[in-house]
Design goal:
mainly alpha; 3-stranded antiparallel beta sheet; about 90 residues
Length: about 90
């Protein structure tokens, strides 16, 4: 059994599910306003922005929310493997 390969595959699965959920959450939050334009939740200042005014700041916030968790899990996994390898006896 290869623990590293299994953990990596688990990370890929969780990351794909998270990115899918994040996309669904973002597009599911978009609602037509009184003017007929789409307003979407961004989490920046007013929490909602007209989609046509969706700028770099809002895109960064959505990208950070979407990619932040998978990157954090990857770094935590690397750290856990590094710590775990420190407990393995060296064979001479």
């Amino acid at each position: 059994m290869n623990l590293m390969r299994g953990l990596f595959r688990l990370w890929i699965l969780v990351s794909v599910l998270w990115v899918g959920f994040s996309g669904w959450r973002f597009w599911g939050s978009c609602m037509p306003g009184q003017d007929g334009e789409l307003w979407c939740a961004t989490g920046v200042e007013d929490w909602v922005t007209r989609l046509k005014y969706f700028g770099l700041r809002e895109a960064f916030h959505v990208a950070a929310f979407t990619l932040g968790l998978p990157l954090a899990l990857f770094v935590i996994g690397l750290a856990a493997v590094w710590v775990g390898r420190g407990f393995v006896k060296e064979s001479n």
